[in-house]
Structures are given as C-alpha cells and as structure tokens.
Amino acid sequence: MTDAAPRIKVCGITRLQDAELAVELGRDSGYATPKIDVRGVIFDGRERVLLMRERADGRWSLPGGWADPGEAPSAAVTREILEETGYHGSAVKLIACWDREVQDNPPPLPVHVYKLFFLCRHDGAVQPPAALETLEVGWFGLGALPPLSLGRVNHRQLERALAHHRDPALPTEFD
After folding, report:
1. Which domain holds residue 105?
2. Alpha carbons 72 and 137: distance in angstroms, whole number
3. What are phi and psi of 100, to 5 degrees?
C-alpha cells in the first residue's frame, strides 16, 4: 500500500476505499480466516420474531448476512435488517457468537463461518425491502415457525434469542 492510497473515515477509523480494499484483499495469500455472518433478532410485544423469506431457498431466516470489510458488526446487522425487511432497527445486545459448524449439522459451505446474533429493537419507520434477496417478511411465534433456512438460523438459536429478549441480563453465549 502506498501513501497515495485512497482512504475514508469509517466510525472514526481511517480505512481504504472500496476499490483499493478489493485490490489488497485480492493480494492476501496469508492465513485463512472465518467469514462473519450477522443476524438480527427483533421481537414484537407478543414475542413474535421478525423473519424474512430467502429468495435463495424459499425458506425463512432472521435478517442478516455477511459483514462487509471495514464495517462494524452492529452496523452490518442494522444494514441487513433494513435491506431485507424494510424495518429500521438497532443492535442493543450481542446474544451469541456461534461457530456455524457446531450448530446442529448445517448444510456445508466452502468457507468457515462465525455467526453473530444480535438482539435488536425496532426503531420506527418501515420501507419496502430490497427485492433482490427477500420474497416476503412476517412475524412468527416460536411455536408456529415456517420452514427455516437451516445454516442461517435454527429453532434452538431462536429459543436462545427469546430467552435473551426476556432476560437481557443473560451473558453473551459462545462455543
């Protein structure tokens, strides 16, 4: 990287701009590291969870996806919630950091993934979600869940999220 590399400030930290970052990441032949998947959990007053139906497999999941380089995990999850559901939300608590491979035998991926689950709150207005990834959005009780997109979320993870919603003093979980 030269001193002339384009830079921007993100959350008070100087970062490379996207084009230069892509070049630098393409040069990386170092140690392989896991990808980070963020998932946002919003419950309503009736303890129903906000889910979105994935275009990729037609099944339901918590809003979420890959965190982008240079993006704080809490910013990534709020961006994903808005893009996939149209709901404005904000992260209030890290529920868990789970290794995807340890969680209930998920479908295989070519990369290793750490999953960060955030308890979030709904912050107001709703706008239509981006149509690229989402087929529909809905609120569901844990006893009446639609078919889940396993590998993205499973029933046990939703049960743990509800426990954290009911008792925010629970410690962050990890494996």
Report:
1. 32-174
2. 25
3. -55, -35
Pair 82, 141 in one domain:
yes
Residues 127 and 48 in one domain: yes
Phi-psi category of residue 93: left, alpha or beta, with phi > 0 → left and psi -120 to 50 → alpha = beta
Q: How far apart are CA 16 and CA 24, in angstroms?
A: 9
Q: Which amino acid is at 107?
A: P
pLDDT in tens, 117-163: 999 999 877 877 666 678 999 999 999 999 999 989 999 999 999 99
pLDDT at position 60: 98
State how far the Cα of 72 lies from the Cα of 56, in Å rounded to an integer: 25
Burial of 132 (0-12, 13-18, 19+ CB in 10 A): exposed
Q: Are residues 4 and 55 in the same domain?
A: no
Cα–Cα distance for residue pair 64/138, rounded to 1 Å: 15
Nearest-angstrom CA–CA distance, 17 and 9: 9
**DSSP letters for 84-104:** HH-EEEEEEEEEEEEEGGGSS
Stated pTM of the model: 0.82
